Amino acid sequence: MVWTPQRLIDERMTVRVYCHNAKCHHHAAIDLTLLRDKLGPDAPAMKDDLLRRLKCGRCGSKDVGLIYSPATLREGWPENPNGNAYGKAKGR
Ligand SMILES: [Zn+2]
Fold first, then answer.
1. How far is the CA of 23 from the centre of ligand 1 (A)?
2. Taking phi first (over 0 means left), then psi (-120 to 50 degrees means alpha), and beta for anything else, what does residue 60 get?
3. Three-state secondary structure call for residue 1
4. How confident is the model over 10-35, as pLDDT tens digits?
5. Contact at 8 Å (CB) between 26 and 58?
6. pTM of the model
7. Which residues sit opposite 29 in a β-bridge?
8. What is the distance between the alpha carbons of residues 21 and 2, in angstroms, rounded to a whole number?
9. What is the CA(35)–ligand 1 centre distance, in A?
10. Pairing relationship of beta strands 14-19 and 64-69 according to DSSP bridges
């Protein structure tokens, strides 16, 4: 599967950029709507495609990494109120 900006949005993915500079460690989620506007909805948006366009917004380092997370790992997802479901098998 090849990610494109539109597909990332449709699948409700979150793409976060992590700075590898030990003095910085800045991280931020990419604005996928902005990405789509910049690259076009069908442009390739795999790690290698994005990494060479990215640099850290804080220190300017190009030594950054990307993490693609599915919707269930999004920030703001409600925490399990009981905390006892941890480790249970996830349905597919
Ligand atoms: Zn940085």
1. 7
2. left
3. coil
4. 999 999 999 999 999 999 999 999 99
5. yes
6. 0.73
7. 16
8. 28
9. 20
10. antiparallel
